[in-house]
Amino acid sequence: MECTVRWTGLSGMTFTAETGSGHLVTMDGAPEGGGRNLAPRPMEVVLAGTGGCTAYDVVLILRKSGQDVRGCDVTLKSERAEKDPKVFTSIHFHFTVRGRNLKPNLVERAIKLSHEKYCSASIMLEKTAAMTHTFEIVDDLGEPPAP
């Protein structure tokens, strides 16, 4: 995996990352740090990437378990250290999983497998942050399955 991050200019603290797959992500700093608040902070991108990593795993595991999963949201709430390096010290993940007749034990198992075995991002962040997880299931009777 590869990524190139470039500072976009002398004014402000905006950076553009180009991923190995050719996608661009813009990041900016807070105004008190010289940024202009034009994009997410780098640590927000880390948190969002972690949410994406684990949600991907959960959907994939549920599909492989034969579950009719139709949606998966994860809300992450974090705390960071007050002093540098301001690492994450706690992260709470709340999953809202939508589908038809989802089995709670399989949803719980998918979340556990993601965080203990598959989600590289959360496994790395667990080195400094206490991780907690909750979930809810929403029975989705009216919508066709997601592609």
From TrEMBL:
It comes from the Bacteria. Signal peptide: none annotated. This is Redox protein. It comes from Noviherbaspirillum suwonense.
